[in-house]
Amino acid sequence: MPDLFKVAIVGSGPAGMSAAGRAAALGMSHVLLEKTDHISDTIFKYQKGKHVMATPSNLVLRSDMLFDAGKRETILGIWNKHCGIADDRIPPCEDDLPTYEINVKLDAEVAKVEGAKGDFTITLKNGEVVRAETIVLAIGTQGNPNMLRCPGSDHEMIQYQLDDPGEYFDEHITVVGSGDAGIENALGLAADDAQRNVVTILNRRDSFARAKAANVALLEEAERDGRISVRRETSPKEVRDGEMVLETRDGEETIRCDRIIARTGSQPPRGFVEAMGIAFTSEERGAFPKLSPAFETTVPGIHVIGALAGYPLIKHCMNQGYDVIEFLNGNTDLKPADEPILSEKFAVLPGDHPVDHWLDVFGGNVAIFAGLSPLQLRELMLDSTVHYYEPGDVIFRRNEPGSSMFAIAQGSVAVEINPNDPSVTVPIEQGSIFGEVGLISGRRRGSTIRAADQVVAIELSRNAALKLIATSPEAADAVNRIAIERQLLQMFGSGLTPQDIAPLVEAAEIMELRAGQVLIEEGADDQEVYIIRRGSMIVEKDIGGRPVFLSYLPAGSYVGEMAAIDGSSRTATVKAAVKSEAIRLPGDRFAKLLDRNPALREKALAEMEGRRKTNAFIESRKDQFEDVVDLYSETAQFLVDEGLGEATDVLLIDEKLCVGCDNCERACADAHEGLSRLDREAGRTYAHLHVPTSCRHCEHPHCMADCPPNAIKRGPDGEVVIDDTCIGCGNCQRNCPYGVIRMDPKPPKKPSLFSWLLFGAGPGPGEASYSWRKEHGDPEQPKQAIKCDMCSGIKGGPACVRACPTGAAIRVSPDKFLTFTKLTEDIDS
After folding, report:
1. E strands present in 586-678
2. CATH 3.50.50.60 fits 5-143+268-337, yes or no
3. Model confidence at 442, in pLDDT bands (50, 70, 90)?
4. What percentage of the chain's residues is helix, strand, coil (to nearest 5)?
5. How far is CA 164 from the centre of its chain?
6. 752 CB-near residues (< 8 Å, 6+ apart)
7. In angstroms, rounded to a whole number, what is the distance separating the alpha carbons of residues 430 and 568?
């Protein structure tokens, strides 16, 4: 063994194994240091029988070590054979495969690294010393799991590793975590019916942005089959003996729990890495080391690859292992394996520049990419779309649906702030983002945006943007700061500049509220101001010991300014109608902003006066109209409970006017190939208002959360539509909390009037095809999801409303219906 190796590779995961295999193939003197008694601890710790994926499928694999999608045991058996290692815990590989001259040292945990490029000294915990000219760190992050952060997080029911899901029987098991590891653990625990486990997986978001598409598809299939309960927008609240308290979108819920598998991600071993002198991209807990395109850190001679570089996919890791050895061997012209893919993507951009040029532009110019390493930026670009716009080109229009986010790499855009005068614009400059409102709130595009000059922009799909925000603390901070600043400027107006509101933005805090949680309590002395960023709120006032419903506040509203302006106590209670987010602003800073901006102060005082008049009106007439006030409050609460709290458009039927003619259903059927999208009689009623089973077109549609073919989209008027690419998986039906989606066999094509009259072919005009298919249809026929689409594309709007002879059927948006105006109209009448 030489005294000085050319390279010491620390860690034998996929990245380290590939690096060692390449070094052996080149005849480079090397040593592979692994702290455990087996190779590739990353894969060794996977659950038994786990299917390991080889994604992305369009990325070529560079490695001397064989790898393809397959079972954990098969991959470890192949790699053991490559290394000439026999391990009784892994079935041996019987294939005729080569054995490489890989110099592996097991039970070799590194204690410290000293020296400099050309002569590093690596001291192992057992006292042995290894010397090397260069070091490749391939240690990953798996050994530093994120712990649960809730009361009871130290309970003995919690475990952070699942070795063999087949060991557990007859247990209620909750998996916390929505990444690949959590999904795979849940699938493994529910794979064998004989185990009789009751498996639940928690995802604090409404989508699985961090997981591979194939894993998400398998989870959805298990959910459809009833093998796994998937709880979206749910997080742990508390762990108790034999149970777990959940924080759900609708409030708290307690479930039985015998075991908790926490797969909540991991963090880089920062202390160990920084002890070598290596700098990280930021002070954020989840930040990664700063790296050059050749994977070199800020300490010359020390390179980082794999998950520690922010690139966790096995294929990427193995390519990096191959590439770093090539770089150390003098192959400086080597391009990454994803170069052809990115080159094709960037071909639409001007100037015929190479991939590296555009990556430098994107990384250097765009604020939200500042915390990404070159490797992470490349991965992000694989999931994004680049655009080039000429001056005046429309990027998107006001009220268009859209949840993607754009980053400006070159040029600037103009935002049309006055829909009646396109010449009135505000600029968004190079380096910033736009479209974040649709991403965060789920609402339609708020303005038309055009290219002000030649623009190069990156469009991040919703999943790509959410993944970026989840994995890059710097990106999350930048997006939140920009979104808060834009929302403040849009709401307050009065000629404010970003500099004016900077103190507010710096102190802003984002709060999450479950349904029913109080944001502001009547009589309290706090003076914060709140902006509703997502979801909706209801405002109530206590009158004679009873809560009286005053108004509904959708996302984009602000509340609480009265106390900040005059220091008075809170005059009403504000609470979340559905799971919501609010931005908390310090009242003293808001008051100072008003003092510096008289126009804004006058506007706020006028709005405050209007609210005071409302309160005074109720107080003065509460005895006279007590029954009306109570009825209105109870009716409003009923409508919120029925989904108006998150609706953008809902069908209501006034039963005082409804004569039961069913014209609404027949009109709906005529407009949709004979298949009605509503059931007038179904649904709940309070007082004289009936809510039939018809889609609410939610602000954040639950049905969109897990649609494999992405068949559910928003139309130009905000309608939620299911298109012809529906595969009938039923995810949308299960995810809808209001029961307004059903799965029906695909309707037969409507015949011509001539064919129907002469030959009786198919259902006729105006005929309910459901009943026809019930008699004639094939029960095994493929199904599709059916729901209200607000008669999208049909002139005149919703057919149900147009066909009602008495005006009983109305379509409403909650911000126009659930207001005090309605109450005063009732009282005055």
Report:
1. 650-654
2. yes
3. low
4. 30, 25, 45
5. 30
6. none
7. 43
CA distance linking residue 60 with residue 642, whole number of Å? 51
Give phi and psi for 690, each to the nearest 5. -115, 135
Rounded CA separation 275/133 (Å): 19
Region for 253 from its dihedrals, namely left if φ exceeds 0, alpha if ψ lies in -120 to 50, beta otherwise: beta
Name the CATH superfamily housing domain 340-492. Answer: Jelly Rolls (2.60.120.10)
Residue 695, H or E segment: none
- For 301-353, write each residue's pLDDT tens digit: 999 999 888 877 899 999 999 999 999 999 988 999 999 999 999 999 999 99
Tokens found for residue 691: 């809510």
DSSP 362: H
Beta pairing, strands 536-543 & 573-576: antiparallel
Asked whether the domain spanning 503-622 has the same topology as the one spanning 340-492, the reply is yes
3-state secondary structure 698-729: ECCCHHHCCCCCCCEEECCCCCEEECCCCCCC
Please state the pTM of the whole predicted model.
0.64
- What is the distance between the alpha carbons of residues 460 and 380, in angstroms, rounded to a whole number? 8
Angle at which helix 473-492 crosses helix 462-471, to 10 degrees, equals 120
**pLDDT: is 566 or 452 the higher one?**
452
Q: Quote the CA–CA distance of 708 and 715 in Å, as a whole number.
A: 19
Q: Which whole-number Å values give the CA distances from 427 to 422, 478, 487, 505, in the listed order?
A: 13, 18, 15, 19
CB atoms within 10 A of CB 539: 25
Burial class (CB in 10 A: 0-12, 13-18, 19+), 166: middle
Beta strands in 604-678 (DSSP E): 650-654
Q: Which helix (H) or strand (E) holds 394?
A: strand 394-396
**Is the previous residue joined to 289 through a cis bond, with omega within 30 degrees of 0?**
no
Q: Which residues pair with 512 in a beta bridge?
A: 581
| Cβ-proximal residues to 754 (8 Å cutoff; 6+ apart), any chain | none
* Superfamily of domain covering 503-622: Jelly Rolls (2.60.120.10)
Confidence of residue 768 (pLDDT cuts 50, 70, 90): very low
Backbone angles phi, psi at 810, to 5 degrees: -135, 150
Type of residue numbered 231: R
Q: Are 574 and 511 in contact (CB under 8 A)?
A: no
Which distant-in-sequence residues (6+ apart) come within 8 Å of 602 by Cβ? none
Q: Which CATH superfamily hosts domain 158-262? A: FAD/NAD(P)-binding domain (3.50.50.60)
Q: What is the pLDDT of residues 158-208, one digit of tens each?
A: 999 888 888 999 999 999 998 888 999 999 999 888 889 999 999 988 778
| All structural domains of the chain with their residue ranges | 5-143+268-337, 158-262, 340-492, 503-622, 648-812
Lowest-confidence segment of 232-241, 386-395, 660-669 by average pLDDT? 660-669
The answer to whether residues 726 and 709 touch, using CB atoms and an 8 Å cutoff, is: yes
Position of tokens 């765009």?
366
> Token pair for residue 17?
């194994």
Query: 3-state DSSP call for residue 374?
Result: helix
Q: pLDDT (tens digit, 9 = 90+) per residue, 621-661?
A: 555 545 555 555 666 666 667 666 677 788 888 888 888 88
177, 487, 559 from 491: Cα distances, Å: 36, 6, 11
Asked whether the predicted pLDDT for residue 424 surpasses 70, the reply is yes
Amino acid 285: pLDDT: 75
> What DSSP character marks residue 148?
P
| pLDDT tier at 498, thresholds 50, 70, 90 | confident
Structure tokens at 358: 């555009």
Distance CA(3)–CA(8), nearest Å, equals 12
Residue 586 near residue 505, CB atoms below 8 Å: no
Burial 614-650 (b: 16+ CB within 10 A, else e): bbeebeeebeebeeebbbbbbbbbbbbebbbbbbbbb
Question: pLDDT tens across 595-622, in order?
Answer: 888 888 888 888 777 777 766 666 665 5
